Amino acid sequence: MNKLVSTYGLYFAWLVSVIAVGGSLFFSEIAGFIPCTLCWYQRIFMYPLAIILGIATFYNDKKVIGYALPFPIIGSVISIYHILVQRIPSFTSPCMTGVPCSGVYINWFGFVTIPVLALIGFFLILFFLFMSRKES
Q1: Phi/psi of residue 61, nearest 5 degrees
Q2: Are residues 122 and 46 in contact, defined by beta-carbon separation less than 8 angstroms?
Q3: How far apart (Å, rounded) are the C-alpha atoms in residues 129 and 53?
Q4: pLDDT tens profile 82-122
Q5: What pTM was estimated for this model as a whole?
Q6: Given 10, 22, 23, 68, which is the most exposed site by the fewest CB atoms within 10 A?
Q7: Where are the transmembrane segments (predicted)?
Q8: H or E, element range at 121
């Protein structure tokens, strides 16, 4: 299993990013959920990963890992902050106009919200990229 993940980690990271992009587009375009400011920031760090990791996967270029790592790291920080804004009422939010960042569109199992899904995606991408580095 470890060999599988280290061999195909770049592919798995790309697959997670494509699923995350598809999920965010589903929530906004089909389900009609209007993204808040923090959601847009998370998208800014997820969407390029689908392209960057897709190209790197096609060429099996493991050097991209160094360039791709800042995206899921920064995206994870934004996701954690967004989760805190949703869960702790006293947290300040950058959403001053439009859709409130504290709003919850989905709440699966009592704790899985859209920022939690984004955080899971960013963590999975980080995991697969780090595992992929072990084979390099």
Answers
A1: -95, 100
A2: yes
A3: 10
A4: 999 988 878 777 777 778 877 778 788 888 889 999 999 99
A5: 0.90
A6: 22
A7: 12-34, 40-59, 66-85, 105-130
A8: helix 114-135
The C-alpha angle 77, 79, 82, rounded to 5 degrees, equals 110
Distances (CA, A) of 37 to 13, 78, 101: 25, 11, 7
Single out the residue of 41, 58, 61, 52 nearest to residue 17, CA to CA. 52
Q: Can you name the residues that pair with 108 across neighbouring β-strands?
A: 112
Residue 30, both tokens: 């089909």
Q: How many domains does the chain have?
A: 1
Q: How far are the Cα atoms of 11, 64, 124 from residue 59, in angstroms, in the given order?
A: 11, 10, 21
Q: Which domain covers residue 70, as residue numbers?
A: 2-135
Go through the chain and tell me how many residues it has.
136
Question: What backbone phi and psi angles, to 5 degrees, belong to 107?
Answer: -150, 70
